[in-house]
């Protein structure tokens, strides 16, 4: 026997939920969220802070450290490696 047509609004809540979930689909690889490119000419505080931090860190990295062989410690014992 063939099923008769029942309008969506007269179906049970469970049947409507199943119907609507079958109608929905994913966007796949497409992202529907609108994104804007930041204005390159505008002042950006965060960008300025990152630049300032990187300048400070690089100045500490460039300081030459004196070589001191007495500071070399053997990890397996307490004696110096060079002595």
Binned, the helix content reads 25-40%
Distance N terminus to C terminus?
98 Å
Low-confidence runs of at least 5 consecutive residues: none
Order of helices and strands: HH
Strand content: under 5%
Mean pLDDT: 78
Shape: elongated
**Structural class by sheet pairing and helices:** mainly alpha
Count of DSSP H/I helices: 2
Largest sheet: none
Q: Could you tell me the radius of gyration in angstroms?
A: 34 Å
Describe the structure in your own words.
It is a single chain. This protein is elongated. It is mainly alpha-helical. The protein is 34% helix and 0% strand. The chain contains two helices and no strands. It starts with 12 loop residues before the first helix and ends in a 22-residue tail after the last helix. It has helices spanning 13-23, 45-61.
Question: Which features would summarize this protein structure in a list?
Answer:
83 residues, elongated
Brief synopsis:
With 83 residues, the protein is an all-alpha fold.
Topology:
Elements: H1 13-23, H2 45-61
């Amino acid at each position: 026997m063939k099923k008769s047509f029942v309008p969506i609004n007269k179906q049970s809540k469970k049947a409507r939920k199943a119907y609507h979930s079958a109608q929905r689909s994913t966007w796949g690889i497409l992202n529907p969220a609108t994104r804007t490119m930041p204005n390159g000419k505008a002042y950006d505080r965060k960008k300025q802070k990152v630049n300032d931090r990187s300048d400070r860190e690089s100045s500490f990295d460039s300081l030459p450290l004196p070589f001191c062989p007495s500071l070399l410690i053997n990890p397996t014992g307490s004696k110096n490696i060079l002595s």
